[in-house]
Amino acid sequence: MHENSELTNHDCFANVFRERGFRKFSTAQIGKLLQEEYPNFSLGSILPNDHAKGNAASCWCVGTPQQIFNKVRRGFYRVRQYQHLESKLFQAEWKV
Ligand SMILES: [Zn+2]
Fold it and tell me: What pTM value is reported for the model?
């Protein structure tokens, strides 16, 4: 369980899925995993499509090496390679 007040939506996704590279998840599974790690994360903010190439992508990560998911089909996403998921949190720790 983490305190997520300093983390962006993208950081929460990245932290949860950085070690789950190449695995496929449904939107429901993604929501469940996020809420297990970040109980304060509102379900309405869990929009994996925001972090994948899709018709409603809205996160800065889409199209960059930090993009978290590839959309498999409607409602299913595959996590991209974990090396690409270094979040600001982990980068900050490395700099210290
Ligand atoms: Zn993102």
Answer: 0.75
